[in-house]
What does this fold into?
Amino acid sequence: MSAPTHAPAPAASVPAAPAPAAPVTAAELLDFTRRVASDAELIASLPLDPEGRTWIRLDGPGGSEAWLIGWPPGTGTGWHDHAESRGAFTTARGRLTEHSLAVRLPSEGWRSLELAPDLDRTRGLDAGTGRAFGEHHVHEVLNESPSEHAISVHAYHPPLPLIRRYSRTGPVLRLEHVERPADWQ
It folds into this structure.
């Protein structure tokens, strides 16, 4: 009696791993924030508080983190950065002011830095105006209006791993504390 013969088993069909998604660029984030800022129905749905900022989490492009934020008159973020995340924001209603530094600071290993002269930048962002920025961008955003709420759309990729908060006295910038996602979600 002859031994049974077996045909070789067909090769298992293993689906190829999906190619990693290309990182979302700052320009793509800005395009997203501009489109969302023009959605009048969404902008009108944000509850506004006369005392403090309000926000709604949004689904951003390519897994990015996005927020719709309401700014009562006279409120701001204080100096901060978004670590390794690229970002963009667009004013949907009112006017925001951004103060930023035209230099990339070391991401770690310091608690206090004296800034060189001429690093400060200021830009006003009226409704429909936005801006994109790269990693480690240090800035503060303010609603300087004495009477009008502002609303803006923000997006970050990768989603924010942390936010570093700074204080500033003249040319001296001090790292005050680090916030993690659990602190704001």
